[in-house]
Amino acid sequence: MSETDIHLSIVAPAYNEVDNMPAFVDQCAAAGQVVGKPFEIVIANDCSTDGTGEKLDELMQTCPQLRVLDMRKNSGQSAALDAAMRAARGKFIATLDADLQNDPADIPRLLEMIERDECDYVNGWRKSRQDTGFRLLVSKYGNAFRNKVTRESIHDSGCGLKVFRRECIERMRLFNGGHRFFATLVRMDGWRIAETVVNHRPRTAGVAKYGFFDRFFKVIRDAFAVRWLEDKTTVWRASERRR
Hints:
By secondary structure, the protein is an alpha/beta fold. It has a single domain, classed as Alpha-Beta Complex (Spore Coat Polysaccharide Biosynthesis Protein SpsA, Chain A), CATH 3.90.550. The chain has helices spanning 21-35, 52-62, 77-87, 107-115, 133-150, 182-188, 212-232, and strands at residues 8-14, 39-45, 66-70, 92-95, 121-125, 162-165, 193-197. The chain has a seven-stranded mixed sheet, with helices on both faces. Helix 2 links the parallel strand 2 and strand 3 (66-70). Helix 5 (133-150) runs parallel beside helix 7 (212-232). It is globular, with a radius of gyration of 18 Å.
């Protein structure tokens, strides 16, 4: 199969998710089968120390659609996500977290919204989010703050589940922490964005990688940086005349 034949790339960063990898790959493969067109799964292993890399080696033997990238050093979620997206060969790209809280079964429905030309990018909304009360509270006010500063209307910018045309990222430079502003960065390049409710599941293996104090001040700083970019960005499309 050539890269031009691939319809959908399902991509994810992974850091210390060894116990989630078998089910994650199986569920992503099942979602690809539902789409019914050639697909691939691209996982960027961000220097895991728990055996995630070895488990992915095993899974590559049984899942021909699986491709694995090894980050040279632990680089964080944004960098690993960016690496996986740049390696993706599909006409459409779906991103999600590898912790199994996002449900790969939602991917075909989000993809259909784009294929019907309703939008170019769909952001998942974890309306019934399965997390602790503290994390829910932080997320609620964090999203409100981001939306206020960046003039956005997305309910859940932190949701890892997104589906979009690969052209949406061709001009994007995903800075460290930029995954939290993904929808805004896409909109800034002139693409049509939409949001839809998706399933969210409690974490059953592994541990969360971020806490409140890991990102609170970084999000504030990054939100104002994105606002500055919004004010400075010019959106253009051009075509050459034919003789």
